[in-house]
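Support request, please re-run this one:
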Amino acid sequence: MKREVVRDFLNLPGIAGVALMDGRSRPYFCGVDQTLNFQQKEALAQGIRQVVETTPDGFESFVFQFTGHQVFIYKLEHGIILLVLARSQLVYADYLEAIVNLKAALQEDITTAIATFRLLASDVTMSGHNYWKQRIDGNPTSTLDSSLTTGARSFSRDSPAAINPSLSDLEPAATPLNGKQSSSTPPQTPPPVGLESHAPSYAPVDLKELLTTLNHLSQFTTQYLGTAVITNYWKSSRPDLDWLRNFQVDRSAQLTFSSPLAQGTNQPITTEQQQWIQQWVVAFIKRCSQVIRDFPTIVEQRALNDRQKQILLQQSP
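Re-run finished. Output below.
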């Protein structure tokens, strides 16, 4: 793997830095020296490893908030973890293409990739030391919020615990870059998507547009939790209604509609059917938010445009 591959990724607008973790040495951070101090990098690395080691294999990727940045985590082969630190200016369409290319380059020759990151890294490695197995309470430079540790340990696939990885959960007990001591303000849980339903006052929705919108949300969500988990969440959160059973979710988290009574995808859905869909979406988002607390906000602010929100989200009075 050539250094230029990593440098090209770092030059993508909105990327603040990357890191590679092999579980034996200090994380190989690249490009984050102007963003995180030493103690912040220590706390971030320890917290990520805790969560990754205590979550099911079906989770392929995660996203957290940390010091005002988004942190994307990807589980690669041989226990390698890729971390991406992003700013708010990140263009998701460009990022998704770039991260696929970077992951492919890394897994093509993981040994060479680790060596490349080691050369580019700003931290000195600790050869022969099992960095990840240190006790958190024995390392004064990386104190983590106890709720994160407890949540990660009690996590299960069928009934996910409230890991709730948000800014406050992963904030290290260290002096921030501005030199002021951080306060331990408890995290504020964002309000859930409204449960009230109303007759829409906009253009009718047909099955084709509905499926397109549902699949847009589904594919957006897979970048956070992976296709296997999202497929399971769609199925388990579906209300027990006959019409909704006509929706099938395949292994790629793609939704389709099949009914002997259907008259084609241009068939408009009724107001009642749309309300059923919205109930399903509310339950789906709630299930995802058990893992990512800020997920309702992420959906409203980044996943859907105004028309898509009108279709899938129950509107306030």
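The two ends are 55 Å apart (CA to CA). Confidence is low (pLDDT under 50) at residues 122-201.
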